[in-house]
Write a structure and sequence with these properties.
This protein has 67 residues and is an all-alpha fold. α1 (10-36) runs antiparallel to α2 (40-64). 78% of the residues lie in helices and 0% in strands. It starts with 9 loop residues before the first helix and ends with a helix. The chain is built from two helices and no strands.
Length: 67
């Protein structure tokens, strides 16, 4: 059985890349705020989310570019 997420048009991949990039930026800012407030574990998880979003953004952008 095919996964419908594998059949996303190129334009949608660009949108996904933009959304993931935005999430990465917001997670990074929240992680900084958490660090400054000594919320160490929260900052850690927000940084994990940032890294994941950055990875997905790059992957979606590469697919959108036809790479």
């Amino acid at each position: 059985m095919s996964d419908s997420r594998d059949v996303i048009p190129t334009q949608s991949k660009a949108t996904i890349a933009s959304l993931a990039n935005y999430i990465a930026e917001m997670a990074g800012e929240l992680a900084t705020m958490a660090n400054r407030s000594e919320l160490t574990m929260l900052a850690y998880f927000l940084n994990l989310a940032r890294v994941e979003a950055e990875t997905k953004s790059r992957e979606a952008a590469a697919v959108g570019d036809g790479r």
